[in-house]
Sulfatase N-terminal domain-containing protein (marine metagenome), 390 residues
Amino acid sequence: MKKYNVILLLIDGTRIDRLDKFPIFKRLKEEGCFFSEVIASAPYTLVAMNSIFTGMYGSKNGIDAYHKMFQNPKAGCKTLADYLTENGWYTRGDAMRLSLVSNQGFNKFTSQEDVPDPDFSKIHKEILDETMNEVSSEQPYFLYLHYPKIHHSIKESVFDKYDDFSQEYFENKEENLRNYDEYLKEAADYLDEIYFKNISGKQNNDSIIIIMTDHGMGIGEKVGERAYGSFIYDYTLRTFALFIQPKIFPKGKAINELTRAIDIMPTVLDCLEIPIDQSCLRMQGQSMLNLINQTEQNESNIDEDSEFQKIAYSETGGVNGPWPSPNSPNIKCVRTKKWKLIHNLTPNTWELYNLENDPQELKNMIEEHPVIVTKLKDKLQSIIDDCVSD
């Protein structure tokens, strides 16, 4: 077993397509290994975070809908914090809201939701210092620090002002994007303070640092969804993860293979050489370490059957939008690097997109590729069945 500290910096609601607008993110990518195609299991924090911390989709761990707040994963699920606490780590979390992320397995778990206008750089620096001062030098620790200010700013500037069909909002995407970039700039400043001024150099040799997001954020691309949660298009599902630990992850390396947010937990356990508990519900995620030294394949040379071995699944049931379903997911999708199939259960409609040629998901090709549709429907059903098989 390798007793690295684990520090997870979670920047809520980050759009991957805006990272390179800010020098701090370019600097961060040079620090470690950047996974650029991490698909979220859901486009909202509750399901996305509990999937990350269990290595399972929401429909398997039992937290798969907005109205399942304040719940722990169902019996048999073992969280990342469970594994680490049981193996001698001190585990400390600071979440966006206590209702959104299970505290299962954590030694100490807090939230700043009742603090007016919290300074997250200051608060999280204090948590870092407190942990390093209180924990024995012989004991490794796990820190989960959630930065929610992008979400809070979107709530104030979008959710509190517009509904899911407000013409004024959806006709001003350029202004919406400018506003979003301002919020992301604040997040970049936070990472500069927390990572470069307080972690880098002090922690890099004996820590695994993960910088990632839970889901992306819309700016009015699709009428019916102001920002996130109602649909499952790539502006909310395509995310990233940066792993920093020079003995494991090559600096400046980019992994562009399709991966999933449920792969984060098994990757951490693999790095620490902690075996999977076979008596618990089986994780659906897989370690990504095998991708580190793999020669990246040329996508044009991948035959169709090979491509369909790499599948990511996502689901949602919005509180708002055209088909609200806060008690259970009613929109589900599977995707490869190239293709995405979406099933809207409430109106029972299907969508198929060629993500290489149509990354904005504007042209529904459901009638044009029946063979692709059949294969993806089979993959979708297989994952749905797997979620209820234990």
